[in-house]
Amino acid sequence: MKPLFGKVALVTGASRGIGKGIALSLGEAGAKVYITGRTVEEGKSASCLSGTIHQTVEEVIKLGGECVAIQCDHSIDSEVEAAFNRINAENKRLNILVNNVWGGYEHYTDGTEFWHENGFWTVPISRWDAMFHSGVRANYISSVLAVPLLMQQEDSLIITLSFFAAQRNDKGVAYGTAKAASDHMVACMAEELREHNIAAVSLYPGLVRTESVMKAAKHLDLSNSESPQFIGRAVVALASDTDIMKKSGRVLVAAKLAQEYGFTDINGEQPRPLTAQDV
């Protein structure tokens, strides 16, 4: 029996990367997975990276799962509302929301530096705006629209992808502030959702072998890296936990969850959990 059989999940931003890995793992675990993303044609991604929402669907199906793609730009509220309306019309419920979509990574194509900013005053204001509008705000809107559907079920769950930059002061002003805001948003949501038995958590990956990371692989130490599906296995473990409310409001690290729940990466390895000091 697949642990999430009969569950309905939505993963935002799943054309590639961590979102795609989460969709694959959820589908393999038996959930009916809806995914959103902007890319519907290979080679047309704004990030110049491979992957489309339709390719993600095909790979979920190959794993024996069920997946539905919805083209959606999460910076456009009407498109997000349409996505949730479709989920409601087809299922009348939602069990799992994974807020993975994010903005502000345009540095891959706009020619500006990201990890080693030359002072926040040198960075385009558009990066701040994108991280808050297409990142924090986008996750807030999805959560707002998801809650009425999540309330139809017991032990529902909102997982928001975040990162250790929230706990550091040297990862860029826009990025660090946005991730800290995201974590605090999740904690506040958890407080209000507790009486409705809906859990909300922040999930931190480590160094994940996404398309963008592998593009720069020669410059990185991948010895303790994680596959996108590894983050998906963390999501499956959380969604399968009947005591998930005990974790609501917390920041959780995927590799620590692997140790707690007893799962490994797809290659059988057990990545070492990182801390804020490691990144």
TrEMBL record:
This is Oxidoreductase, short chain dehydrogenase/reductase family. PANTHER family: DEHYDROGENASE/REDUCTASE SDR FAMILY MEMBER 1, DEHYDROGENASE_REDUCTASE SDR FAMILY MEMBER 1. It comes from Colwellia psychrerythraea (strain 34H / ATCC BAA-681) (Vibrio psychroerythus). InterPro entries: NAD(P)-bd_dom_sf, Sc_DH/Rdtase_CS, SDR_fam. Pfam families: adh_short.
